[in-house]
Structure formats: structure tokens, C-alpha cells
Design goal:
Blueprint lengths: L7 H15 L10 H19 L4 H8 L7 H8 L1 E5 L12 E8 L2 E8 L5 H6 L7 H16 L4 E7 L6 H5 L2 H14 L4 E10 H8 L3 E5 L3 E3 L3 H9 L5 H7 L4 H6 L5 E3 L10 H19 L4 H18 L1
Parallel strand pairs: 3-4, 4-5, 5-6, 5-7, 6-8
Antiparallel strand pairs: 1-2, 2-3
Helix pairs in contact: 1-2, 3-11, 4-13, 6-8, 8-9, 10-11
Length: 316
């Protein structure tokens, strides 16, 4: 497992545990089981203490952990009969956003999400989860299709932000994001969004303008990445930690400000330590919200969503 820089103490303890487990008990005069147990307890206590006091910048690092479950992990585990729908019908198919029809529990749904990729080859293919205008036009097209056939929409957000390249801007990046956000507000089917890692800027809001927005415990949701904010405020990206610590980007801050609707607790040490548990917990929260939202009239769903986001503006 890849350890983060602030996990040095835990890494040393768990390394000792692994070394002891590799020893052959028959070669030792005394049993090492008790030593292993004591070290494991010590490592767990250190991990619990560490993760109970994470700073926003440390949470940012956890949210970006490369071994954290990605959208594809959730897609493969909790959705059945997924049929991918590709392209924006105007320019290209953006692999940073994946979407299509699927079966979820007792629901036929449209599922859309950012995919960062699990290795170097995949990350390049998916552009590290940073979509261009084609990705948001694809998402817009799929949401309109879902609306036509009365299919609930589930979105998974995990992006540092929309791709800021010149080509993306030339092809209408800002308009694509705005239209995708507008489509989220206009469709008359339930939308549930889960922020599973980073929720960066308009690139996240474009598919997270939902009836219910839920964050994983150590995910972040930002108006701009800490590095971008530091560059804007101080013209120095190295002050990203200072920016993160002052921007109120954590799930705990956002639930307090009533910007999100819930938090999914992560396994001790972060979602990357236990994929199956966090995926099942996310499945349960989606079932809960979909069960509630699908009982509402379509006009009420639209009004609920609009009021939700207008009230954020009024409060802030």
C-alpha cells in the first residue's frame, strides 16, 4: 500500500507487523503472535488518532490517494447490465466522463461519473478525470435521454476540475459546463450525486447539481483546487496547504453549511484501505435517497432541486 507523507508513524508500525508475519514460527523459541497482536493494536490506535485530526490539506491528499476506489470500481460492483453510451454527437468521445444505462437494485438508471484511471496508461486515456467540453456535452445528452425515459440519474464525482487546455476553451468549455449544469436543474427525474474523491470547481458542479449530494468522509468539494486558489490569491501554488486550510472544503464543513446532504463514513485509514466496505456503504445511501426521491412528483423534483441551490446562494 502507498502511504501518504503524514502517515510515517503508521507505516513504520505496519511494516514491523508485516515483517513479523513473514517469520516462520517454528524457527522461534517463543510465539510471536502476541507481539503481532500488540503491534496491530498500536498501529490501529495510531491510525485512528491520526485520521480523527486530519487537516483540510491532509484530507485533500487522502481524497487524491491513487489507490482510492474510482468510478469504475463502483460501476463494476453495484451496477448490473451496464451499457456504455459514448460521444457528444458533435466532436468526440471524452473518456474522462463515462456514462450509460444500468440496473441498480430495483431501478433502471442512467449512471454518469468521472474516471481518473487506476494506472499510468489509464490515467492518460482518461486525462486524469479532467473532462473537456465533449465530456460535459455527453453528460448533458445522457441526462436528457434519462429524462425522456423517466430514468433516475446517479452521478459519481471525482475530478480536480474541468480540463483547462487551450483546445478545450476553443471548443466551448465554459458553455458546455454551464449547459450541463442547466440540464441538471431542468430534468424532471431524481438525481443523486456522490463525491467519491475530489469535487473540483465547475467540473464537479456540472454533474453534481442534484436533488441529493453526498460526500465520502475524506473527500473534498471546492470552488477551485487548493493549488489554483493559492496561485490566484498569492501567485504561489506552493501555498496550497494554506489555501486548503482556509477554504472550508471538507465534508464536515459543507454539511455544516448545508451545501451537501450527507456524509458516508470511510473505513479507518480511508476508503483505499477497504474498497468493498465503502462501495457497499455508498450503495446503501444511494438506495435510501432513490427510494425517497422516486416517490415524488416530477414537478416537485425540479422545484426541490432549484430551491436547494437557490437557498445556498441566499445563505452565503
Amino acid at each position: 500500500m502507498q502511504y501518504l507523507d503524514f502517515e510515517k508513524n503508521v507505516a513504520e508500525l505496519e511494516s514491523k507487523v508485516n515483517e513479523l508475519k513473514q517469520l516462520n514460527p517454528s524457527e522461534n523459541e517463543i510465539s510471536i503472535d502476541e507481539n503481532i497482536k500488540q503491534l496491530e493494536e498500536k498501529a490501529n490506535k495510531a491510525l485512528e488518532k491520526l485520521y480523527s485530526t486530519l487537516s483540510p490539506w491532509e484530507k485533500t491528499k487522502v481524497a487524491r490517494h491513487p489507490e482510492r476506489p474510482h468510478f469504475r470500481d463502483y460501476l463494476d460492483s453495484i451496477f448490473d447490465d451496464f451499457t456504455e453510451l459514448s460521444g457528444d454527437r458533435k466532436y468526440a468521445n471524452d473518456h474522462a466522463i463515462i456514462g450509460g444505462l444500468a440496473r441498480f437494485n430495483d431501478f433502471n438508471v442512467m449512471v454518469i461519473g468521472h474516471e481518473k484511471g487506476a494506472n499510468t496508461t489509464e490515467r492518460i486515456k482518461h486525462n486524469f478525470g479532467m473532462a473537456g467540453p465533449e465530456g460535459y456535452r455527453k453528460a448533458e445528452r445522457l441526462m436528457q435521454l434519462a429524462d425522456r425515459f423517466n430514468l433516475p440519474i446517479i452521478t459519481f464525482v471525482d475530478t480536480a476540475g474541468a480540463y483547462p487546455g487551450i483546445g478545450a476553451e476553443e471548443r466551448g468549455q465554459s458553455e458546455a459546463i454551464a449547459r450541463c449544469t442547466q440540464t441538471c436543474l431542468n430534468v424532471s427525474v431524481p438525481i443523486v450525486s456522490i463525491i467519491i474523491g475530489e469535487g473540483g470547481s465547475g467540473g464537479a458542479v456540472a454533474i453534481a447539481t442534484a436533488n441529493r449530494v453526498v460526500m465520502l468522509q475524506h473527500s473534498i468539494y471546492t470552488v477551485a483546487s487548493p493549488e489554483a486558489s493559492a496561485s490566484i490569491l498569492w501567485r504561489d501554488a506552493s501555498k496550497a496547504s494554506e489555501a486548503a486550510n482556509s477554504m472550508r472544503i471538507t465534508a464536515q464543513d459543507l454539511i455544516e453549511m448545508k451545501i451537501i446532504d450527507g456524509i458516508v463514513a470511510e473505513p479507518l485509514g480511508g476508503a483505499h484501505r477497504n474498497h468493498q466496505k465503502i462501495i457497499r456503504d455508498v450503495e446503501k445511501i444511494i438506495i435510501k435517497h432513490l427510494s425517497e426521491l422516486t416517490k415524488l412528483d416530477r414537478n416537485i423534483l425540479v422545484a426541490d432541486r432549484r430551491d436547494k441551490f437557490l437557498s445556498i446562494g441566499r445563505k452565503l
